[in-house]
Amino acid sequence: MATDRSVLLEFSIAPTGKGESLSSYISRIVDIVDRSGLDYRLTSMGTILEGSWDECMAIVTRCFRELERDCGRISLNLKVDYRAGASGRLEGKIESVEQRLGHPVKR
Amino acid sequence: MATDRSVLLEFSIAPTGKGESLSSYISRIVDIVDRSGLDYRLTSMGTILEGSWDECMAIVTRCFRELERDCGRISLNLKVDYRAGASGRLEGKIESVEQRLGHPVKR
Amino acid sequence: MATDRSVLLEFSIAPTGKGESLSSYISRIVDIVDRSGLDYRLTSMGTILEGSWDECMAIVTRCFRELERDCGRISLNLKVDYRAGASGRLEGKIESVEQRLGHPVKR
Amino acid sequence: MATDRSVLLEFSIAPTGKGESLSSYISRIVDIVDRSGLDYRLTSMGTILEGSWDECMAIVTRCFRELERDCGRISLNLKVDYRAGASGRLEGKIESVEQRLGHPVKR
Hints:
Chain A is of the alpha+beta class. Chain A is built from 3 helices and 4 strands.
């Protein structure tokens, strides 16, 4: 039961040199994330995972291995916000801002 | 009418050394974005703007100036995805992935 | 004379969909930076500028406008470390680590 | 002997809420990198590793575990440039730009 959800990890990964349209590659990534069982959010700029360090990093590695199969050059950007003992931050951080502002924001 | 919305810009900005809880600072940033009139989305890892290069960068500068007033050290991360002639990508990029996968994703 | 060098700004900018080799585009960027008069360092992963917020951001905008001329899609990553009143940090931050470790590091 | 050096990985990692001066934490990170045996460069904005995906990611994980011991909140930024079959890019990418420009740049 003691699931560790102390890590929020946002990443975007894409091939370089495969044309301007990347949605076929991104769909392969999102499919891996969606099947992983970890909680996540897809945004217009990346994917945000919530879990333990090892869980989140394992998914990023799976996504890299997937693109490595047919992409000669790959670019990855990744950002982690770790907070010991935290959980539910995919929504909690946004709600905290809404409470301070006293009104909903666009999400 | 020919509004330029070719830029998606995601950014996160926060003071260093002001304690572990940052939501009071983030709220000041989101307030600036929310009043700006630009379309945006708040995520658990940052804020995504859609507009022209100059519009998006002007907002980032306003946010930096806001924190500069009382923060001795500031960290900013920023990512731009520019696509000539594009618009509506805050939702469009996610919908494009959903269409390829044939089912909705978590957003 | 009181030059403001409180901002360290690292950025990388490149077209998407122009092939795997990007050095011709990167050279156009570095040329702009090199002629700007701002102090900078080129690394294998980006360019680091030292100056005021406005100076650094003006160069990033010039680089974006340069690529916008012939690139339909552009990706930019940017990171700022602002410290009020600081200067000489392109070398100073590295030297500070070396002093703590008691030996030189690879740079 | 067939060392895989296809990954350039730049990262910066630091605690949030431990004051404005971070060099004591950064020194612990650089010490791990320096003893790892992987080739690297320290810049004013982060550390760049060259190696295989697994080697580079293992070092990042070691650095995270090191800070996790006494830091309640940690921020990590990471960027990967993978190129199949490549090596020597810590210097090679800079030299390639210098050749195109026809003169040395600041590094």
